[in-house]
Write a structure and sequence with these properties.
Layout: H1 2-16, H2 19-26, H3 42-45, H4 51-75, H5 79-94, H6 107-117, H7 119-136, H8 139-158, H9 160-200, H10 202-211
Helix pairs in contact: 1-4, 1-5, 2-4, 4-5, 4-6, 5-6, 5-9, 6-7, 7-8, 8-9
């Protein structure tokens, strides 16, 4: 029990490190929560930060999962504790204590953990990503294919129980994507409502009529 709690705590604290925030400030970039898809992570950083900065975020977020699982493996041989450490890193990345519990979607933290937890299935998934990327030139689609294929490869290699544990970890990503879509829809709804209120205001209506009046009075 002590090892499990310690593994979760270490994973959560490592996952909570706001690497994207640090890197963005270092390069004079914006708050990633205010631009693009509002996700403080690698995918969103590619559009607003230099390539080196995005690569640093990629490596940092990946390392959260890698280091968390390695730390757990150094404490115990119980694979269940390893998965708890991975879950802690993913929860920390999604709801970081060092960034007001506003984090990313934990995809790279999961990938880093999966590389250590199941090296052969992870290697197979990465190979599939590279092949599909080379064939289609669509990196995002290739990544989705790799994510889908990984559990099947793991089932063959590690059996159903560890694959089920991977499914639990992947559900954290699903929850974060749903929450992010709800937030963006809510922000869009508020923006539309604010625009409607402004358009309905008397001064706004007067300006609109003045701008489209063919014979304005002197």
């Amino acid at each position: 029990m002590t090892e499990a709690l310690l593994a979760v705590l270490i994973g959560y604290l490592l996952g909570s490190l706001p690497i994207a925030d640090f890197v963005s400030r270092r390069y004079g970039g914006p708050n990633l929560r205010d631009v693009g898809d509002h996700n403080p992570g690698f995918w969103n950083s590619r559009a607003v930060l230099p390539r080196n900065a995005s690569l640093t975020i990629f490596i940092g977020d990946l390392a959260k999962g890698v280091v968390s699982v390695l730390a757990a493996q150094a404490m115990t041989t119980d694979w269940r504790v390893w998965y708890l450490a991975a879950g802690g890193a993913m929860v920390g990345h999604a709801w970081p204590i060092f960034a007001r519990f506003s984090g990313g979607r934990s995809v790279l933290a999961w990938v880093g953990a999966a590389i250590v937890l199941s090296p052969l299935p992870a290697g197979f998934a990465v190979l599939m990503v590279l092949l599909f990327w080379a064939a289609t030139r669509e990196f995002s689609h290739a990544v989705r294919i790799g994510v889908v294929l990984f559990p099947f490869a793991q089932w063959y290699q590690d059996g159903p129980w560890r694959t089920a544990a991977t499914g639990v970890l992947m559900s954290i990503i699903g929850v974060r994507f749903v929450m992010a879509s709800d937030v963006m829809a809510s922000k869009k709804g508020l923006a539309d409502m604010y625009a409607s209120i402004r358009a309905a205001a008397p001064l706004a209506r007067w300006k609109h009529r003045a701008a489209h009046d063919d014979n304005p009075r002197e």
